[in-house]
Amino acid sequence: MEPPVLHVSEAEAVRDMASILQRVRAGMEVVIERDTEPVAVVRAAAPVRRTISECIALAKAHEARPARPPRSIPTSLPTWKRSFAIANCGTRQRGTDPRFECGHRRRAPKPHRTAEQFQTGYGEIEIDISVVTVVELTHGIQRAKPEEWRRHRQAFVDELIRDVPVHPVTVETAKLAGRIEGEQAEQGVGIAFEDLLIAATALQLGFGVATGNVRHFEHVPGLNIIKG
């Protein structure tokens, strides 16, 4: 999907570069012109791409380093291709495949262990997560009791977003989500907002969604669902 293009003069760019960068972050491509001739094109940097092997190797390398004080979860992150099995686990829904539980009644698994399970099942694929998944997992952290479970979940999420690329929800993602929601609403089908954004992100990037909650995504047309 091609991003929307905005044409501005060189003088406008010099006068308000902050506004231009804000538009670029929202998913636009900005062409800076002098006398109608293009001078420069400003577009968002290509998202980080990692294969599953690269994510596993990075996680293991981090584990091998001396322990550091706990990090807090970033509040804004640059969304994901294959929402691998943690898109919905350990947050609002329970009863998913116990291999992918995020610390409910037991210690949370290491992210690279979860990735290795997917590597065994699906081979050498690229894996990423949606920023919406970070929201859902953080919701699970806040609701976890006792404190020990909360700490385990916090460690899992911190390690996950450190080693696996996180994709944002852009303006184009939002438009696609709106079209899907409108089309399905006309047919009497409702899709949870967070699932809608994850699905739209996957479709926009050409990826599937791996999840233990297939029914939450099965009404999204054209979406490849990978059962976790």
At CATH level 3, the topology of the largest domain is Rossmann fold
H/E topology pattern: EHHEEHHEHHEHHEE
Q: What amount of the residues lies in strands?
A: 5-15%
Regarding CATH, which class of the largest domain?
Answer: Alpha Beta
Give me the count of strands.
Answer: 7
Please outline the major beta sheet: 3 strands, mixed
- Unreliable residue runs: 68-106
Account of the protein in words:
This protein has 228 residues and is an alpha/beta fold. The protein folds into two domains: 38 residues, YefM-like fold, CATH 3.40.1620; 182 residues, Rossmann fold (3-Layer(aba) Sandwich). It is 43% helix and 12% strand. A hairpin with a 2-residue loop joins strand 2 and strand 3. The protein is globular. The two termini are 28 Å apart.
